[in-house]
């Protein structure tokens, strides 16, 4: 019972009761705001209209009228539909073949292509369902009147019953292999977590060991301390992705050498954010406790588990403040989708600019801390300095006296 009372007293006087109650409530509120709907509505799709007829435009209107899809772009031809998935703007490409209207009028079958990004199965389920519903509806409208007619041959009868045949291609992860989804996500998460645990206490460790003031004589020293974390975390992540591909059968299509570039920027930017977030921590334990401010939002908003299409636009914009979200975007596009680095130059430039801003913020924070410590040192020195200076004063007896000391008469010369 003594142990129970002792631990109870410790917890009551700590912040744990508040944390244990408040943090689950924050999680409930946060996820409720991030996931306003349990399904993806108005997912952006591209339609390749090779027929360009009145019926094909009517078919496109029916696709756009679906609550699950939004026709964001219509093109007449493409020889590389994979390119529409590189920047994560679209979730599907729908291809309407040439001769769609002619086959419709002749009660013949037409094959509509549905190309899906299968890097996240959750994001395409509703699109597949919506297209199946549209094809069934079109077939019913065509087949019922046709079957009432006479003199129909076997080919026409088959076309009337199956006027729209939906051909589905699931790209990038057709077998729904967990190596490319869940295992990949948690591999990156553990690497991210280890990076946070070790880099968050960086400044607090210097402060506790009384080395922070000397380190701030050159504010760039803090950025130099970021480099070892960048080296080891980049090597660890690249090595683990290689192991997952070689021994686990995972998919990784990017050039490993070129993929190091976004990973280096991600690690460097993450450590800079950790330094800024944990700068004021009094000791390393408090600094590590701030990991929840970095780890959970970054992992959730990255789309590693939940599709980013589920999030409102504001949540996606907030996610861009975390370098881990950028890294996972590069991993999906270059690693899983096989996009060349040239396709990702806009995102790479944005990430480079953001990491540069974070670096300048770290330097500015170091300069501010240096000035603050200098003022504290000057104040302490003035408090420990000498009292008021000694001032000579004349005494009433014609002699000299020191202020605060008894007067001493001057000896007159001896007269002869």
Describe this structure in words.
The chain is an alpha/beta fold and 416 residues long. Helix content is 56%, strand content 10%. The protein contains 16 helices and seven strands. It has helices spanning 2-12, 16-34, 54-65, 100-105, 125-148, 154-161, 182-199, 202-208, 212-215, 220-246, 256-277, 284-289, 295-301, 313-319, 323-336, 345-383, and strands at residues 43-49, 69-75, 92-96, 110-117, 164-171, 392-394, 400-402. A five-stranded mixed beta sheet has the order 2-1-3-4-5. A two-stranded antiparallel ribbon has the order 6-7. A hairpin with a 5-residue loop joins strand 6 (392-394) and strand 7 (400-402). Keywords: Cell membrane, Membrane, Transmembrane, Transmembrane helix. The chain crosses the membrane at residues 16-34, 183-202, 222-244, 256-281, 287-307, 351-368. Its main location: membrane. It is a multi-pass membrane protein. It is found in: Cell membrane.
What attributes does this structure have?
416 residues, alpha/beta, 5-stranded mixed sheet, 16 helices, 56% helix, 10% strand
């Amino acid at each position: 019972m003594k142990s129970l009372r002792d631990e109870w007293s410790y917890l009551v006087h700590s912040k744990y009761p508040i944390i244990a109650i408040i943090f689950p409530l924050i999680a409930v509120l946060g996820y409720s705001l991030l996931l306003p709907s349990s399904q993806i509505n108005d997912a952006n799709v591209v339609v390749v209209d090779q027929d360009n007829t009145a019926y094909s435009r009517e078919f496109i209107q029916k696709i756009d009228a679906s609550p699950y899809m939004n026709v964001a772009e219509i093109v007449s031809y493409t020889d590389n539909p994979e390119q529409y998935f590189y920047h994560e703007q679209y979730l599907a490409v729908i291809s309407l073949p040439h001769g769609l209207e002619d086959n419709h009028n002749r009660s013949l079958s037409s094959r509509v292509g549905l190309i899906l990004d299968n890097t996240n199965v959750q994001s395409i389920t509703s699109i597949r369902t919506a297209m199946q519903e549209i094809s069934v509806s079109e077939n019913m409208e065509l087949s019922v009147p046709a079957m009432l007619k006479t003199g129909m041959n076997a080919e026409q009868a088959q076309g009337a019953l199956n006027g729209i045949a939906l051909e589905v291609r699931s790209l990038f992860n057709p077998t729904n292999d967990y190596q490319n989804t869940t295992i990949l996500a948690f591999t990156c998460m553990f690497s991210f977590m280890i990076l946070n645990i070790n880099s968050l206490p960086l400044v607090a460790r210097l402060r506790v060991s009384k080395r922070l003031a000397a380190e701030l004589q050159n504010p760039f020293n803090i950025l130099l301390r970021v480099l070892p974390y960048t080296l080891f975390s980049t090597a660890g992540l690249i090595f683990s992705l290689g192991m997952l591909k070689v021994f686990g059968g995972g998919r990784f299509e990017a050039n490993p050498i070129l993929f190091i570039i976004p990973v280096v920027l991600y690690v460097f930017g993450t450590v800079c954010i950790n330094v800024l977030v944990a700068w004021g921590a009094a000791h390393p334990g408090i600094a590590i406790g701030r990991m929840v401010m970095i780890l959970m939002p970054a992992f959730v908003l990255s789309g590693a588990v939940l599709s980013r299409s589920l999030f409102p636009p504001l949540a996606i914009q907030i996610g861009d403040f975390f370098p881990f979200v950028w890294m996972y975007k590069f991993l999906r596009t270059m690693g899983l989708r096989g996009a060349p680095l040239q396709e990702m130059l806009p995102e790479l430039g944005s990430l480079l600019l953001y990491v540069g801003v974070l670096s300048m913020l770290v330097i500015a924070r170091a300069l501010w801390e240096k000035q603050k410590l200098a003022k504290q040192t000057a104040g302490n020195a003035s408090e420990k300095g000498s009292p008021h200076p000694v001032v000579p004063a004349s005494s009433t007896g014609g002699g000299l006296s020191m202020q605060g000391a008894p007067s001493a008469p001057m000896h007159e010369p001896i007269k002869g």
